[in-house]
């Protein structure tokens, strides 16, 4: 008796394990006719599946089913509420063209599942509006994105090359013109000077930058005078630093 029970159990288990996968597709609302460009909700079911791999179904995102229905949005992939062995993919489908719907062959881990085409007629648009084509193209945006990104990259590369050439030409010009390099150097020194060390360095190098100036006003002498008063002091307080800075601010823009 135990052997018979064991044999029956093995037969049942083997029949479940090797059960042929089946599937069907239904359209929400029992719609019979749609037009090109219409969006419809549909449910794809496959069974029996235990611990189903949902990634096998997610790969159909943007795929064409039944020769015309494009899955543009997956809303859910989960076991049926009525039967855990039935996996349901609910999504939004686009009726791409007025084609005759054919059976769809779903591949689940190498096993093919035949799914009959739904009783749905896709009627052609009498006059295809411009926005229909925009919608249709948007669904194939990957190609346009590639072109757009490629064009943008090309533009950036060309811009970088042009900018690099200009910088190199400018740098080359500076190398050939020591005076231009010196003016650039002291322009930065003058604009960034804020500390005692900055002012002392500029004062100490006055014989380098004075010849670069076209005009030499009394403001430079005032700066030199106040520096002579304070440069030998061990420390500067706020009063000394403010006095030096006030005189220097008058000549700060000498190399603009």
The parts where pLDDT drops under 50 for at least 5 residues are 10-18, 130-141
Rounded Rg? 40 Å
CATH topology of the largest domain: Immunoglobulin-like
CATH arch. level architecture of the largest domain? Sandwich
Mean pLDDT: 83
Total E-strand runs: 9
Global structural class: alpha+beta
Helix amount: 40-55%
Question: Helix-strand pattern, N to C?
Answer: HEEEHEEEEEEHHHHHHH
CATH class of the largest domain: Mainly Beta
How large a portion of the residues is in β-strands, by DSSP E?
15-25%
What characterizes the major β-sheet?
5 strands, antiparallel
Q: Indicate the overall shape.
A: rod-shaped
Total domain count:
2
Could you walk me through the main structural features you see in this protein, from its secondary elements to its overall organization?
- With 256 residues, the protein is α+β, with helices and mostly antiparallel strands.
- The protein has 2 domains: 18-128, Immunoglobulin-like (Sandwich); 178-251, no CATH class.
- The protein has 9 helices and 9 strands.
- It has helices spanning 2-17, 55-58, 130-138, 141-176, 178-192, 196-204, 206-209, 218-230, 238-251; strands at residues 22-27, 33-35, 39-47, 64-65, 69-79, 87-95, 104-108, 111-115, 121-123.
- It has a 5-stranded antiparallel β-sheet, with no helix packed on it. The chain has a two-stranded parallel ribbon with strand order 2-9. It has a two-stranded antiparallel sheet with strand order 7-8.
- Strand 7 (104-108) and strand 8 form a beta hairpin.
- 12% of the residues are buried.
- Residues 10-18 and 130-141 have low confidence and may be disordered.
């Amino acid at each position: 008796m135990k052997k018979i029970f064991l044999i029956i159990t093995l037969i049942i288990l083997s029949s479940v394990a090797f059960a042929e996968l089946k599937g069907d597709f239904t359209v929400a609302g029992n719609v019979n006719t749609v037009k090109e460009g219409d969006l419809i909700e549909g449910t794809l079911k496959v069974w029996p599946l235990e611990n189903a791999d949902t990634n096998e179904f997610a790969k159909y995102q943007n795929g064409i089913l039944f020769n015309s229905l494009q899955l543009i949005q997956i809303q859910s992939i989960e076991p049926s509420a009525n039967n855990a062995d039935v996996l349901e993919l609910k999504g939004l489908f686009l009726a791409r063209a007025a084609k005759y719907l054919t059976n769809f062959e779903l591949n689940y881990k190498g096993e093919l599942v035949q799914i009959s085409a739904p009783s749905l007629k896709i009627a052609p648009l009498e006059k295809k509006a411009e926005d229909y084509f925009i919608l249709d193209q948007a669904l194939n945006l990957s190609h346009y994105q590639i072109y757009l990104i490629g064009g943008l990259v090309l533009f950036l590369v060309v811009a970088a090359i042009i900018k690099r050439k200009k910088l190199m030409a400018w740098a080359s010009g500076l190398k050939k013109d020591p005076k231009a390099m010196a003016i650039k150097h002291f322009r930065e020194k003058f604009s960034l000077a804020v500390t005692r060390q900055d002012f002392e360095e500029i004062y100490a190098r006055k014989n380098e930058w004075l010849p670069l100036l076209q005009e030499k006003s009394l403001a430079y002498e005032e700066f030199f005078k106040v520096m002579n008063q304070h440069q030998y002091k061990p420390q500067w307080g706020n009063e000394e630093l403010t006095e030096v800075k006030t005189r220097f601010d008058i000549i700060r823009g000498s190399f603009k």
